[in-house]
Amino acid sequence: EQFIITNVEFYPQGRLQIFNRWGIKVFETTKYDNSWTGKENGKQLPNGVYYYVFELNEPRVELEKISGQISILR
């Protein structure tokens, strides 16, 4: 399974950050392409709630960041 952001292809410079419940960054990438599978450094993250921030990095749009939560259940 993957973390999918709809229409991500319209934001080729998009930056995705994923944080655990303690605010520790567990994943970060630029040019996100819907490929995150719930892993940190190749290891599966434990079940739980994580938080994401997706920076659009697109000067033509009003909304600069999208954020929310992700639940990992295996």
Topology:
Blueprint: E1 15-19, E2 25-30, E3 39-40, E4 43-44, E5 48-55, E6 65-72
Antiparallel strand pairs: 1-2, 1-5, 3-4, 5-6
Describe what you observe in this structure.
By secondary structure, this protein is mostly beta strands. It contains no helices and six strands. The strands form two sheets. It has a four-stranded antiparallel sheet, with no helix packed on it. It has a two-stranded antiparallel sheet with strand order 3-4. Strand 3 (39-40) and strand 4 form a beta hairpin.
Describe the global form: globular
Through-space gap between termini: 10 Å
- The order of strands across the largest sheet is 2-1-5-6
Please bin the fraction of helical residues: under 10%
N-to-C order of helices and strands: EEEEEE
Q: Which strand-content bin applies to the residues?
A: 35-45%
Radius of gyration: 12 Å
Let me know the number of strands: 6
Oligomer: single chain
Low-confidence stretches: none
Mean pLDDT across every amino acid position:
91
Largest sheet: 4 strands, antiparallel
Separate helix tally: 0
Structural class, please? mainly beta
Spell out the key features of this protein.
4-stranded antiparallel sheet; globular; two-stranded antiparallel sheet; 74 residues; mainly beta
